[in-house]
Each structure stands twice: as C-alpha cells, then as structure tokens.
Input
Amino acid sequence: MADNPFYYLKCIGCGKEYSPEKIIYTCTICDDMLSIEYRYSEIPPNLEKQWKKRPLSVWKYRELLPITDEKKIVTMGEGGTNLHSCRKVASILDLKELYVKNEGENPTGSFKDRGMTVGVTKALELEMKRVACASTGNTSASLAAYAAKAGIKCTIIIPSGKVAFGKLAQAIAHGADVIQVRGNFDDALRIIRELCNAHPVYLLNSVNPYRIEGQKTIAFEIRDQIGYVPDKVILPVGNAGNISAIWKGFTELHQLDMIDSLPQMIGIQAEGAAPIAKAVKTGIDIVEPWTKPETLATAIRIGAPVNWKKAIKAIRDSKGLAETVSDREIIEAQKLLASREGIFVEPASAASIAGLKKLVLSGEIGRDEKVVCITTGHGLKDPEIIVEKYPQPVEVEANLGFIEQLLGLKALTVAA
Output
C-alpha cells in the first residue's frame, strides 16, 4: 500500500482517525461506525475530463475509490446499470418524470456487486486469505462470486430457512462455505463479526466502510446518465448501507463542485421490519432493534440495521424522509413494474416503487418533481414469491379450440 494514501478512516461519532492499513471495522474508542474520508487536495484535478474518457462502471470513478494498487482490482464489469425512463408507471402515478436505476443488471443480479468489487480488492491489498459475511441473500451471492474471482476462501453465515433459494444457489455454486444458523440475520451478523474479530478473516458486511464506497457510485452514475441531480432518490432500506452510500456519493460530488444541488433521500422499509422508518417518523435519534422482523421482502428483513446512524443522518441532512409499505403493496408494485415497464425485480426492490406510490398519493411527492427509484435486485433472486403470490399458468388439452376459447378469440373462417 502507498506510504501516504489519499484517504483515511474516520469515526462518525468521536472523530478519531485511523490509517487505511489498519484492519478495523468500528472505532476502538467509542465503537461507532467508520467512514472513508478523502484528502481532496490530493485528488487529481480535472476529474470530469478523466471520467468522460471511460465507459460507465464502478471503476470509471477510481480516483474517488479507496484503492492504491490498481493491479489488484477484482472486477466482473459491475456498475453501468441502466437508468430506465418509466413513462407508463409515471403516467399511472401522475408523475412527469420517473426513472428506475435497475441494479439487478449487475453481474450477480444485485447492487451488492458495487461494494464487493471494492471490498474484495481491499482484502487483496491487505493480503487477507479469507473473506466472510452474514447475509439475507444478495450479499452472500455477491461475495461468493467475487471471492471466487479473486481466488480466496469465502465463509457465509445465513439465517436458516430465511434466504430465497435463487440467492442461496448462487453462493453454493461459487464454492463458498455456507453455514445456516438457527436465528435471524442479526444473529448471523453477530456471529460473523465475532469470527472475524477472533481470526484473520476479512469481514465484508456493510459495517465495513470500504464496501460502502463501491455502492456510492450509484450517485455518480445517476448524475452522468441524466445530466442533473434528481429531486428525490427513493430506495429500499434494510441494513441501511446503501442509502448512506448514495448520499455520500452525492455529497462528494457537491464538495468537488461537480453538482450544484443535492437530492432528498427517501428510505422505504417493509411494515414488519421498519426500525429506521419508525425512528425517523417519531423524530427520535436512536433506532431500537426489532427482535422479530418479518416481511416477504427477505432482502430487507432486518431488525437491527448496523448502519442506522449513517442512514438517519443521510435522510435528515438531505431533508428527506422514511416510509413503510405493506407486503401487499410491495407485491402490487412488483407486478406494476414488471407488467408495464418490463423490469422484473425482487420484492425488496419493489418497495421503492410501492413507497413512491404511497408518497405521491399522500402529496409528499409532487407531479413535477424528478424522481429516481433504485431497484436493488433481479426478480429471479426470489422466484418462490411468484409461485406463492401470482396467478399460475392454466393447463388445457392441446387443442386450438380450447386455446381460442380461453383467450376469448374467435376462430378464423377459412374460405372455400
């Protein structure tokens, strides 16, 4: 690593600073979360000029990513996801301008790839031989893939019976050591943190600030794709790393005078797993953990989000808000996006669309505002939900007449 890197670790609580060469996840003084901070005077000038030469991807923005040895970069082409103009859904919701940033287009099908390309690269820089995470699904699939690409061992702990099979299958296929524990995600995270503290195993949950850095590139791409900063950015919130990461990305662009305004950040949680939304709505400063979070949106079924402090700060600093949606509203939003725009996302992703609909109806979002919704994972991540909640295919005899009758079509009259 460089003798004097252009970045360092800083506690978000007491402000203590740490060298990036130190393997650490929380502050040794107050145990608060850490953030990657940059010495802007050491950032190369003319970033815009450099960035315009490169294709859209996470590593397009390498000058604002905390990596010192580019030869060690572990990449599978992550980032560069489409920003879809969703005119049909916008019309239904009476919105003038709506975009969906579909993170399900990443290599393993979720936004987690943005964080893992940076996090696993950092593991190689630190000469770690094994990486690990606790997961509700997407994190495990992504980490397993990037560890395989890097040629290092991977350990994953998941809550037994609580991970969608589409995600679990990925982790298994990529060769990770997958262990199920009897408990929820918060139990799995507690154990994996204990494991990483006791052994030379590199933790890559969102408590690791390097992983969050990759995810902030969503903000960079939004700016580059539409050429301006939207009024609102809406996304699902589980462990809360993504909302704080995207806000960090926008604030860094603002710090570097690359944008003139900042968006409002809006976090959406499922009603059965909404500790952050409850805190924001009631105006309290501390998030109380939910011991039994429950929602069919498995990716955000988290009762004790580790990044709650960063998330609440992002929402409040951006003058944003948080909202909850029911499982029924999530499924309706998933159907709406798939049937009207051709974008198939997992239930947790659809929470952003469900939240948008609810906020438009309540008047919190005006029709003339420019809105970007983040959808975080592909619909094939959780195929079981389609079997459980959607109408199933009809079976009939292999006869044209039956098919015509079923479809309400009249038989064609053949001329003599």
